[in-house]
Amino acid sequence: MMLWSIGLVRGLLTGALGVGVGLGLAMGLRGVLGLEPWNAEQASVLGAVCGVIAFLGGVGVFHDWAAWATGRRELAEPGHEGAPPQPWWVRYLSYATDHKVIGIQYIATAIALLLVGGVLALLMRLELATPGMQVLSLSTYNTFIGLHGMIMLGATLVGIAGLANYLIPLLIGARDMAFPRLNALSYWLVPPAALLLIAALFTGGFDTGWTAYPPLSARASLGMPFFFLGVYAVGLSSILGAVNFLVTILTCRAPGMTLFRMPIFVWAMLATSIISLTATQFIGMSFLMVLLERTLGMGFFDPARGGSVILFQHLFWFYSHPAVYIFVLPGLGIISEILPVFARKPLFGYSAVALSSMGIAAVSFVVWGHHMFVAGMENHLIVPFMLTSLLVAVPTGVKIFSWLATVWMGKLSFEAPALFALGAIVIFLIGGLTGVPNAIVPTDLHLHDTYWVVGHFHHTLFGGFIYPFIAAIYYWFPKATGRMYSEKLAKLQFWLMTIGFFLTTLAMLRIGLLGMRRRVADYDPSLGFTPLQLLATLGGMLVGIAFVLFLANIVLSALVGIKAASNPWRSRSLEWQAPSPPPAGNFPHPPIVIGHPYDYGVPGAVFAVL
Amino acid sequence: MRRHALTAGLLASVLAGVLVLLAVGVDLLPASGSREAEYIDPLFRLLFAIAMIIFAIVMTVLLYSVAVFRRRSGDDTDAAPIHGNAVLETIWTVIPFAIVVPLGIYGAVVFHALTRPVDSAQALEVRVTALQWGWEYEYPTLGVRTRELWLPVGQPVVLRLYSRDVIHSFWVPEFRVKMDAVPGMETTLRFTPVQVGEYRLLCAELCGVAHAYMVGRVAVVEAAQFAAWARLQATGEGGSP
User: Fold this and answer.
1) Integer Cα distance of A390 and A367 in angstroms
2) Which residue of A has its CA nearest to B50?
3) For A122, what's the count of Cα atoms within 13 Å in the CB-facing half-sphere?
4) End-to-end CA distance of chain A, in Å?
5) A602 close to A346: Cβ distance less than 8 angstroms
6) Are A382 and A436 in contact (CB under 8 A)?
């Protein structure tokens, strides 16, 4: 009975039931049509879809809406007034509408996914440490490349949703998100999505990488539909989340908080949500079309049936390139948020930094073709895509130069959030600089599909997401838990992670230039890459150890850390004016904003009155 | 303020100088084996040099701020509030623009040179069919079909790429250029090998389980040797030497 009160447990049980119903449905339908009842692909797809819906129902996501739609109950303000107190583990493992609970659910899920994706990465690094096949089989390795990629991208989306959920209402002085029930639905789509992705490993895998290009993906094993459906569920979660963030940011701000008084992270989420809301459909569509090709024989991408192979790549990259900015803009926003606090100086060029996010979002929609310079795309499209891609450097440069001007003559101190923010700048800078030769066509003809590209995007994602994510968790840890993390452990983590990261990625860039292809399980020892591969593996292990230190730090500190001061960083921002951890509803009264968030050093400047 | 800016500027110049020398001096690319590499490699070196200069400037400002302006213990006052500077912000918006646009134009010019059609009488055409997991070649003008790619040194080559199953990609790192072989369509890759030798042909697009082992052999030989090989192949007596 105790277990039954946990939403996750209920969801998993009803989900399993739903899978059974879906399998039966598939077999029944085929039976009625007079076909052989068992078709593994069709049964899997229907089973998975019914399982996800039943999971959501079991968790209780639809409960309030169903009650409302059937007129059984007045729709009350979602909240916690009058609800019986639950133990914390029931609260965090069940349906909840408080943005702070959902934020922490998202963040915990993201960290779990980073752990799974990281283990896959380390297994691949072990395999690559020496030539020949030692640790994994060829087909397991090929499944891992796609699964590592997509689980990490999922973790990134989920981690960003977590930070945004926890922070946006606090940063703008709101009681909660605009649509708390929709918010819960967005979160609860993630656990079944993660299970589907992981299931792909056990249902035969898929040898296509995360990009799943047909015709390869149309022929891949039974892991493929699970991968597609998992991505579909994450994508749906991302779209619903974007709607919620947009409405919250545009309509729920405290009185006096004009757009140009918003903290930069909120600007970043505004830009990010516009991209998620309008582009995610394209990856969903591209994967759905391959799924239909597999299950129902529709030849969208099969040349023998009039389909086009390249069409898929256009659809896929129309989302998947802007997606890069979904992944990094929030992280860059975190850097802009943290630097002024630790430099005790206003963010330099606030308006330009805010608008640069919108600029990047706008340009991001017209650069997708740079993934297709050698794909057989028409020659007259190639140069325009090169020029638009290069333009990304301009708003990105604005951000980096503004950060430099913020710390210049500032009084930096080096607690963990500051260290990770500064590390993020250096890593992201290298990510940007190594991207230029990919954007310029003649050099990309050599670099495309090499380890140079792998090194490049690991820089952008570590600098644009992983480091800022860790910085944000340390920075807001005292806010969310009321306790302090261990500074010593965090600094040790920073140095281990940074050294490990550069060992890995600089080795990747070097061997990529020399001719190491990406996505290969094995390489010829006579190429001479073995020492650098070994170095990259050692670096990867250091990153892994650093991540374990990070986990230990936050788990132990949340349980037994020393009590934190109410505003340990002497921040001016709204969230630090609320109690730690903030109660449901956040602020006793809506705060009234009368100034700018980053006026450090301005005598007598006030941001808000509570 | 002026003293700090001058010191940092000096440090940045020294760092930039060292890094540029390093980037241009160290062999970062594989040996060059085609005429195309002679266009592409200088572009690489230019991009590396520019990247190193920007890296040096950013790192110097960052490290200088960390080392010189850092908060002293016991100081809990704020820094002087500087909110922005319109001139500076305009400069650092315009300068990246002024760097990337010419680079883009330079890139476009090189790309144009790489894809310019060559005189068909002069060029050797080879039809390349990729499949899981290997390559097949047909020399239509010579009536030769083989499983190994032989090319005469110094003669422009036009590859017509096809695929029998999934997407593959033709890449010889020493030639610097690659192109996908796409099911249902023909793609074209042009290059001129200039160095006699044996090269590895790598499939650069993930093509299934044995992708890692989809490696072919390319032999670039003197024209006379090529002609002799082609005659042998055409009469069906050929084998690899």
Assistant:
1) 9
2) A433
3) 17
4) 44
5) yes
6) no
A584 exposure class (CB count in 10 Å sphere: 0-12, 13-18, 19+):
middle
* Cβ contact, residue pair A445, B76, below 8 Å: no
Q: Which contiguous run of DSSP H or E holds residue B199?
A: strand B197-203
pLDDT value at A594 more than 90: yes
The SS3 of residue B203 is: strand
- What chain A residue is nearest to B80 in terms of C-alpha separation? A601
β-strands B149-152, B215-221 pairing: parallel
Q: Residue window 137-166, chain A: list those with CB within 8 Å of chain B.
A: 138-139, 142, 145
What is the share, in percent, of chain A residues with pLDDT greater than 70?
A: 98
Residues A263, B206: Cα–Cα separation, whole Å:
43
What is the spatial distance between Cα A541 and Cα A504, in angstroms, rounded to a whole number? 9
Q: Inter-chain contact B215–A524, Cβ cutoff 8 Å?
A: yes
* Burial group, residue A595, by CB count within 10 angstroms (0-12, 13-18, 19+): middle
d(CA A182, CA A591): 25
From CA B166, how far away is CA B129, in angstroms rounded?
Answer: 11
Residue A76: pLDDT band with limits 50, 70, 90: low
Token pair of A376 as six digits: 């057989």
Q: Mean pLDDT, to the nearest integer, of A202-213?
A: 94
Residue B189 per-residue DSSP state: E
Q: Which of the residue ranges A88-97, B12-21, B95-104, B117-126 would you say has the lowest mean pLDDT?
A: B117-126
Average pLDDT of chain B is 93
Q: Do B101 and A402 touch (CB under 8 A)?
A: no
Count Cβ–Cβ pairs < 8 Å, chain A vs chain B: 265
What pLDDT is attached to residue A78?
A: 60
Is there a contact between A255 and A610 (Cβ–Cβ < 8 Å)? Answer: no
Whose structure tokens read 């452990």? Answer: A489
For B45-82, how does the pLDDT look when each residue is reduced to its tens digit (9 = 90+)? 999 999 999 999 999 999 999 999 999 988 989 999 99
Residue type for position A493: Q
Nearest Cα neighbor of B28 from A437, A456, A513, A430 is A513
Q: C-alpha angle with apex A107: A102 to A108, nearest 5 degrees?
A: 100
Q: What is the ipTM of this complex?
A: 0.95
CB atoms under 10 Å from CB of B88, counted, come to 14
- Chain B contact for A316, CB < 8 A? no
Q: Are A288 and A241 in contact (CB under 8 A)?
A: no
Predicted pLDDT at B41: 96
Interface probe with A: pick from B62, B88, B133, most Cβ of A within 10 Å = B62
Q: What is the pLDDT of residues A83-127, one digit of tens each?
A: 566 788 888 999 999 999 999 999 999 999 999 999 999 999 999
Is the minimum CB–CB distance between A355 and chain B shorter than 8 Å? no
pLDDT for residue A207:
93
From the CA of A110, how many Å to the nearest CA of chain B?
A: 28
